[in-house]
Design a protein that fits this description.
The chain is α/β, with parallel strands linked by helices and 340 residues long. The protein has 10 helices and 10 strands. A 5-stranded mixed β-sheet has the order 3-2-1-4-5, with helices on both faces. The protein has a 5-stranded mixed β-sheet with strand order 8-7-6-9-10, with helices on both faces. It is globular and about 65 Å long. The two termini are 27 Å apart. The relative contact order is 0.18. The model has no long low-confidence stretch (mean pLDDT 97). The structure holds 5'-O-[(R)-(carboxyoxy)(hydroxy)phosphoryl]adenosine (KG4) and zinc ion. The site of 5'-O-[(R)-(carboxyoxy)(hydroxy)phosphoryl]adenosine has 19 residues, from helix 5 and helix 6. Zinc ion (ZN) binds next to helix 4.
């Protein structure tokens, strides 16, 4: 089954052709990052406009690279939630138009479920159930993936998402948006023991995260040093910050796996590109004789290939939409698409 999939939830306009949820025939990503960089973060209004301009070209480029056309496509898929509402609406309306014109089934896909599905494209034998750490710019969840379309959230962030914390800390240190990747690179050259940062914990919710205190600690540390005329070693601060975030993610993730009896761990989302997170998750899993996997770097960030992967399983579960489909800025990952 060939699915043409579309993604426009944030600042990437993307389209892909995916076969049977597992094979990438083509994948095109047009990023707007250089423009948003000028403002230090995503400007929703600009994002919507750029999606409008790019979507037609991106979708037809994906068909062309797959050496096919709409007559050889079996279904259409689109990210409908969560994300920036104006950005999501561009993809949703484009997909609805294509569905109306061709009569092809329309499959709505949850963005975080798609991030998890990026792993199906890279790991042939991977099947639920498993425990997944989904860490992106907007979300940090520990999710029990019971089947391809049944999920239970057992830990979540109470404030900033992990990616957001990385980006804010990086920005404080003068790095361009999105700072997570720059902070990660600098951290590779730093001493992670140099600066003592708080170890965030949420009382009464053992698997929940909180990252906003960490971000404040970094800002205060930099301001205090400036006032005293002291030099901050940027690489060391990046390494110390990255260690604090990754320790918190890994402690809760491994603790949850132990408590719930999972021996298969999966990472997903933009932050799963983080080199320390990947190393630590692998190490902790190997120590216990568990399996651990994560997507290749090019599938960690936003793309449409992952949307086409998840769409296949949503289709198999009967989760399709009609012309009443609307975008939603927020949507619980546990809830499958509701036809009513
Ligand atoms: O999943 P994603 O592409 O978009 C959302 O759905 O939010 O995630 C983007 C986030 C950004 O905050 C970005 O800084 C972060 O992922 N990120 C990283 C790394 N690469 C991307 N964070 C830490 N280390 C990285 N290597
Ligand atoms: Zn994303």
């Amino acid at each position: 089954m060939k699915i043409l999939s579309i993604e426009s939830s944030c600042d990437e306009t993307a389209a892909a052709v995916i076969e049977d949820g597992r094979k990438i025939i083509s994948s095109v990503v047009a990023t707007q990052v250089d423009e948003h960089k000028l403002y230090g973060g995503v400007v929703p209004e600009i994002a919507s406009r750029r999606h409008c301009e790019s979507i037609n070209g991106v979708v037809f480029e994906a068909l062309e690279r797959a050496d096919t056309d709409l007559s050889n496509i079996d279904a259409l898929a689109v990210t409908y939630a969560p994300g920036l509402i104006g950005a999501l609406l561009v993809g949703v309306n484009f997909a609805k138009g294509l569905s109306l014109a061709t009569g092809l089934p329309l499959i709505p896909v949850h963005h975080l479920r798609a991030h998890i599905a990026a792993n199906y494209l890279a790991h042939d034998g991977l099947e639920p159930p498993f425990l997944c750490l989904v860490v992106s710019g907007g979300h940090s969840h520990i999710v029990e993936v019971k089947s391809y379309t049944e999920m239970k959230v057992i830990g979540r962030t109470r404030d900033d998402a992990a990616g957001e914390a990385f980006d804010k800390a990086a920005r404080t240190m003068g790095m361009p948006y999105p700072g997570g990747i720059h902070l990660d690179k600098a951290a590779e050259f730093g001493n992670e023991q140099r600066y003592i940062l708080p170890q965030p914990k949420v009382s009464g919710a053992e698997f929940d995260f909180s990252f906003s205190g960490l971000k404040t600690a970094v800002i205060n540390l930099i301001h205090n040093a400036n006032q005293k005329g002291e030099e901050i070693n940027k690489n060391d601060l990046c390494a110390s910050f990255r260690k604090a975030v990754v320790d918190s993610l890994i402690n809760n993730f491994i603790g949850a796996a132990e408590k719930l009896g999972y021996d298969k761990l999966v990472l997903a989302g933009g932050v799963s590109a983080n080199s320390l997170l990947r190393r630590r998750a692998l190490e902790e899993a190997e120590k216990r004789g568990w399996v651990c996997c994560y997507p290749p770097i090019e599938l960690c960030g936003d793309n449409a290939a992952m949307v086409g992967a998840q769409a296949y399983y949503e289709y198999m579960a009967g989760n399709t939409a009609d012309m009443t489909l609307n975008a939603a800025a927020t949507k619980n990952i546990e809830l499958s698409f509701d036809k009513t």
